[in-house]
Design brief:
Layout lengths: L2 E12 L2 E13 L4 E5 L6 H8 L7 E6 L2 E2 L5 H11 E4 L11 H11 L4 H14 L15 H13 L5 E5 L7 H18 L2 E5 L3 H4 L4 E6 L2 E3 L2
Parallel strand pairs: 3-8, 3-9, 6-7, 7-8
Antiparallel strand pairs: 1-2, 1-4, 4-5, 9-10
Helix pairs in contact: 3-4, 3-5, 4-5
The protein binds adenosine-5'-triphosphate and magnesium ion (MG).
Length: 223
């Protein structure tokens, strides 16, 4: 098992009341699984994605990554694990507007203090892989939406993470572009054994899952 959740509870305080955003959530993910997380709006999908590697702290419950508990370790250690092992693809892409394609992709390597020359080499390889070798010097606003999404994906995999967390990676894309992105995710999942956890509203995207988690009001239900 690469990632396990045991009896996860996440409560938010709101106007003096408590909201159970996640309630009694347990699951096991094997290395190389392509996990899809589905469920109605407000069911806790983003909360789950963000809480797995500590971007949101749990109220209670355990998270075990690669055999070690990570829910009870400090922020500095969690940041190290995220930098080394996790790639995030968020719906808004979050590309830095004044950095070029290749500079955006080099960010995770810069955070790991990889030498500049090596950053450039690895970012170039990945951009080749996502079909953007001829767009390395463009700014995000000079790219199409699908190309921007591919830059975001390149950035999420350039440091060779073990696991990719994606929140609606195909939201706002047309069907053809969505398929392109999904096929690409499947490719890196199968060829590189990268585990993927993907939140989606799209039945087509959910069809890519080899393991499916369906949430309703913060609880896992059978889909
Ligand atoms: N910071 C917060 N404070 C209070 N309540 C919150 C907070 N963040 C989320 N919630 C509540 O927790 C629940 C789960 O939210 P979450 O964002 O995980 O849903 P979601 O399944 O990702 O929905 P969507 O499909 O709309 O993105 C919702 O009822 C939401 O209102
Ligand atoms: Mg969400």
């Amino acid at each position: 098992m690469i990632l396990q959740g045991e009896n996860i509870l996440k409560q938010y305080q709101h106007n003096g009341g408590l909201i159970n955003a996640l309630d009694s959530v347990s699951f096991s993910v094997k290395k190389g699984d392509f996990v899809t997380v589905t469920g109605p709006s407000g069911s806790g999908k983003s909360t789950l994605l963000l809480s797995l590697f500590g971007l949101i702290r749990l109220t209670s419950g355990n998270i075990i990554f690669d055999g070690k508990r990570i829910d009870n370790i400090n922020d500095r250690k969690l940041t190290e694990i995220r930098k080394k092992s996790v790639g995030y693809i968020l719906q808004s892409f979050a590309l830095i507007p004044y950095l070029t394609t290749i500079q955006n992709v080099m960010i995770p390597l810069a955070l790991e203090k990889v030498p500049k020359k090596e950053q450039y080499k690895r970012a170039s390889e990945i951009l080749d892989y996502v079909g953007l070798a001829d767009r390395t010097d463009h700014l995000p606003r000079e790219l199409s939406v699908g190309q921007q999404q591919r830059v975001a994906i390149a950035r999420s995999i350039v440091h060779r993470p073990q696991i990719i967390m994606a929140d609606e990676p195909t939201g706002n894309l047309d069907p053809a572009l969505s398929l392109e992105i999904l096929e690409f995710l499947r490719k890196i999942n199968q060829e590189n054994k990268i585990t993927i956890i993907m939140v989606t509203h799209s039945p087509v995207a959910a069809g890519y899952g080899t393991m499916k988690l369906h949430l309703n009001e913060g609880k896992i239900v059978n889909s």
